[in-house]
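Researcher: Quick one. two chains, 556 residues in total.
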Amino acid sequence: MNTNRRNLAPSRMVPVLLGVALAAGLASPRTTDSQPASEKRASGPGQRWSKVSVVLPASENRFPPGKGSNLTVQCLICHSAGMVLRQPPLTLDEWAGEINKMRNAFGAPLPADQVDTLAKYLYTINGRHSPGGPTTVDGQGS
Amino acid sequence: MRKSNFRSTQLSRRDLLARVGGVGLAGLLGASPWKAMAATIVELPFVNGRRELVTTFPQKGAMLLQRTRPPLLETPFEVFDHGVFTPNDRFYVRWHLANIPTTIDPATFRLEIHGHVREPISLTLDELVDKFEPYEMVAVNQCSGNSRGFFKPRVAGGEWANGAMGNALWKGVRLKDLLDRAGVKAGALQVRFNGLDAGVLAQTPDFMKSLAIDHARDGEVMIAYAMNGEPLPLLNGFPLRLVVPGWYATYWVKMLNDIEVLNAPDDNFWTAKAYLIPDTPFANVAPGQQGVKMIPINRMLPRSFFTNVKDGAVLKVGQSMPVRGIAFGGDTALAQVLFSPDAGTQWQEARLGPDHGKYSFRQWEVPLRLASRGARKLMVKAINTAGSAQPDHANWNAAGFMRNVIESVSVQAV
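Model:
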């Protein structure tokens, strides 16, 4: 747990806890060979609230170069590149479906006449040939 | 101590160091953890499943990076072998919208309850704690799309393995008590929840979710100000998070600051158009199937997992060893966990660990002794008190929701 405790150490990031020993049994991972672990319930924190301030890391992922890669600035308005790069390979139609979901449901300001170019770029970097079957991309925003 | 038979093939650096210290180097040689340690890369078992194990997120330990902004962080599965409570710093993280406040000042934070009520109220955190009866519950929080990466055919979305879930002791107040204080007026239909997060673009729908008024007043739905005895990590919703026991995590609104009682159905995007499932058993349809009635996702299904044996593990013939894992009942209590040592031909009941309430993870365990050499498929199946059992075949839907197929691991007895 030392690694974790170190991460929690900067006090400006974490509310101050008063008066309660936080069930070490909850916080410490344990292992068992012969029987399931027993756990204790914590009684809750002392009710003192401190300001919490954190810094979220910046993404280190970049879209690879290629025709149409300039359009990915539109993607990066709302999310980092990793979300796209970690998708399963999609067909050209499926990529177009994803792009249109971003435009229609979330308001991505990509002009309609650039959807094909961006879809072709994404298909080039992470595509699969159409099996001839139905698309598996759904239109919901979730 | 763990027995070396049960070492997993992918470990966090922290776990690896702990094991080296605990069991000695010799017991670990030949396993793949070294690769994981060197590159802090984990290969999830599906196409494009390479993930970095990162420690760069505030108040978080080593997590699998699914997306940096807005953060999607998966709990490495070995964490679930450590006990049924998921540590706050290993609890998975899922945000929809990138405009997340990084500073929360309790001096100015207020929780508003308004809408179709007799008297709107505005509460400070201290008032919430001091003026309402504390309420505690252990409950599983599971992403609707947990395990999406295992869907076949694959679907787009957050490509999680099985670690988009966690179990915690939540402490806070009952939502019912707040609503009663504000005085819900006749004709109320739903209660809508909004948090401090927002989209980057003005035209992006704000993330809000609604529950039916009777559900909101059931005395179990609660607003948590503590998680496992500590304030919530910011990325898990500090200072307040809605807890909807037995329901998928999309309803567990983070950084909750606004509760609105509605006298008309909520038509906001996230309630009306997103997080919809086919209205079929296990939300299952055939790929491409059209014309299925869609409804908002709701109650969780039972699930069970192996935590100390991984796919591809090599076990010794004739040696007795405990096989264990975690399970939960979904929207009601776990009744039974069944284990099969032979791909589902025979099933035996697993022994269950301490009961922390019907919405909690529960540990299960069986002794296993493989009598002969060869490949084996071990399976585990949870059944809840409503009689719902994990199905033999995986469900499929285009959003990748509600996977709960029987889990299996292939092992080799030598």
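Chain B has six helices and 26 strands.
Researcher: Thanks, that's what I needed.
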